[in-house]
Amino acid sequence: MRSQTTKVLCFDLDGTLLDSFPSHFEAYKRVFRKIGRNLSKEQFLNAYSPNWHQMYIGLEVPLDYWESLDESWRREIRKMPSVAFAGVKKALERLGRHFMLAVVSAGSRERVISDLARNGIGSYFAEVITGSDIQLRKPNPEGLIRAIHNLGVNNDQAIYIGDAEDDYQMAVSAGVDFIGIRSDFKNLKSEVTILIDHIEELVELPLDPRNRIGASSHQPQARIKD
Prior knowledge:
226 residues; Rossmann fold; six-stranded parallel β-sheet; two-stranded antiparallel sheet; globular
């Protein structure tokens, strides 16, 4: 059981804060048609990873196509911007009164910053680390560790919230507690201690480490108040 007080909540972006599945799936279908392949939803879900190079491997895409697919996908996704899930802005506002907030995403900095600004939630985050800012992709913990250390706290004072298996494995590698969130990407395979359906539920969770993971159910639970 952790003894440190939680100070930072770090969030994944796509599937966690933003309802990204429809636009991402459609963008991938469009780019795969350009190489003569029809990508089904089942194929997409079976191969999906925030690390799209891993997804290309799972879908047996020749390496020669990777760069052109990346460029095509970025063009397509600009035409279909993702929107924040209902209630996200209110939840972030409440959580931000008690914790520093950060985003750690595999997406490019251009897209992540644009998505945050367009949805009016960028100002809630004290730190934003994107795939453009790191050398090693998820599940490597480079991005998460950088965000936490940039905020001047220890790893055991942070929680990461995400919807993908790579998110969970990244948090484990960093020694950071993890809260899973269900999403249409259906990519979280491991059994996690806490699994929620929506970011709004974080407001009601006992985020004090003395009462959260590993604590007995009869202990009082400190919840966030308005």
